[in-house]
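Input structure tokens:
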């Protein structure tokens, strides 16, 4: 029976080529616009650490001593609090992270240039599943001794060494010679979650957080020694000495901890509260207790990191798809009711309402399938146009297999929904009345 209905639907579509083309174009344009924006939204709001993000946490407390008291703790910690919590070793893994800029002096006639730097600790790399092309991270013992070692990105390795294995070679950073111990393989977390702070106050202008990973990763003690004054801070509550960041009255350090079980997470929350109380008893912290610990996914949601313009475009695109579907409903209604005579004859010959309804839905489904094919091509074109835009995330916008399948599923489901009402009206055609008009 399905084959018979399919044959009838194809014959009907061929009889009204112009009308069929209009409906296919309507659904294709709607699908192309909505899938382009939905794909961008999907890529920007995904899990940057699949399978592990539920074990990564972000502790917070309020280290400020100024007159203003916050309702929520600041996004970053002061160095002393972060170092105390990191040094306690209460988590399965823990790492401190600071960022800034640093001068690279390549020598060999090449001009010095500034690039991005992260000061961190050795657990950063295994905690965040950072891949290596050559070598590996520095070890904790060398980090404690302040050994001058560095991990560089594959981009910087290509620029300085032409992509060759540079492990064991030296580069000059801010006039200090450091030895390369590792070169990252391609790593493109979306967003750069390890330094995600302040996004919620940016008014939706969060494209910066989707930039490429930093070029230089230094052990934190080494970074503070050779790059003092060039690491940034989030906010300060008194005038800082930028050359002595560990004692500065500023929030500048992100602390991440890995806790492999819910019991360990609960215990760490208790430890964080106890630490905050102890520091207030000592007089270093003066504000009321204000501690909190988000998981990675909770932290990303709290920061509202997906750019506001992407969200707005997605809503507009789905609104446009809705308009296209309303147009398709009208076209299908006109098309089916124009065949009322044919339907009346079929009903008089014994076809049930259900049979008429199914036949019309199959016709709508074929239109949706054709619309999906052209909608897919428009989606590919739309994503190519997004990649031409001067935005930080342009290079990661590609159509993957799940979104490819969703394109066709959405096109067919949308066309079936649009075709349901016209099909229902067509199935309720009174055969006797139609036969009188023949």
């Amino acid at each position: 029976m399905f084959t018979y209905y399919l044959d009838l639907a194809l014959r009907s579509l061929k009889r009204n080529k112009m009308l069929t083309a209009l409906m296919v174009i309507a659904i294709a344009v709607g699908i192309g616009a909505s899938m382009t924006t939905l794909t961008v939204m999907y890529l920007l709001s995904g899990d940057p650490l699949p399978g592990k993000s539920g074990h990564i946490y972000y502790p917070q407390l309020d280290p400020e001593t100024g007159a203003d008291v916050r309702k929520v703790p600041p996004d970053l910690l002061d160095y002393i609090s972060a170092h105390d919590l990191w040094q306690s070793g209460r988590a399965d893994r823990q790492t401190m992270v600071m960022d800034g800029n640093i001068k690279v002096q390549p020598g060999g006639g090449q001009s010095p240039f500034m690039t991005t730097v992260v000061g961190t600790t050795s657990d950063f790399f295994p905690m965040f599943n950072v891949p290596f092309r050559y070598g590996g991270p520095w070890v904790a013992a060398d980090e404690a001794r302040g050994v001058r070692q560095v991990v560089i990105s594959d981009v910087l390795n290509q620029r300085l060494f032409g992509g060759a294995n540079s492990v064991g070679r030296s580069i000059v950073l801010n006039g200090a010679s450091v030895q390369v111990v590792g070169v990252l393989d391609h790593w493109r977390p979306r967003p750069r979650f390890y330094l995600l702070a302040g996004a919620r106050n940016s008014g939706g202008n969060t494209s910066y957080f989707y930039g490429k990973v930093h070029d230089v990763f230094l052990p934190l003690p080494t970074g503070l020694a050779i790059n003092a004054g060039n690491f940034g801070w989030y906010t300060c509550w008194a005038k800082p000495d930028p050359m002595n960041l560990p004692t500065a009255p500023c929030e500048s350090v992100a602390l991440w901890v890995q806790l492999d079980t819910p019991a360990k997470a609960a215990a760490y929350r208790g430890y964080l509260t106890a630490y905050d109380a102890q520091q207030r008893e000592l007089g270093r912290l003066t504000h009321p207790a204000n501690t909190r610990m988000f998981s990675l996914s909770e932290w990303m949601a709290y920061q509202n990191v997906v750019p506001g313009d992407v969200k707005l475009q997605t809503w507009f695109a789905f609104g446009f798809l809705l308009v296209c579907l309303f147009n398709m409903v009208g076209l299908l209604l006109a098309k089916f009711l124009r065949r009322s005579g044919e339907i009346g004859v079929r009903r008089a010959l014994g076809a049930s309402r259900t049979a008429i309804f199914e036949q019309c839905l199959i016709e709508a489904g074929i239109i949706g399938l054709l619309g999906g094919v052209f909608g897919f091509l428009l989606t590919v074109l739309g994503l190519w146009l997004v990649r031409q835009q001067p935005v930080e995330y342009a290079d990661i916008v590609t159509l993957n297999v799940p979104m490819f399948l969703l394109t066709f599923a959405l096109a067919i489901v949308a066309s079936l929904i649009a075709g349901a009402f016209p099909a229902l009206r067509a199935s309720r055609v009174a055969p006797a009345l139609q036969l009188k008009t023949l």
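The radius of gyration is 30 Å. The first strand starts at residue 56 and ends at 60.
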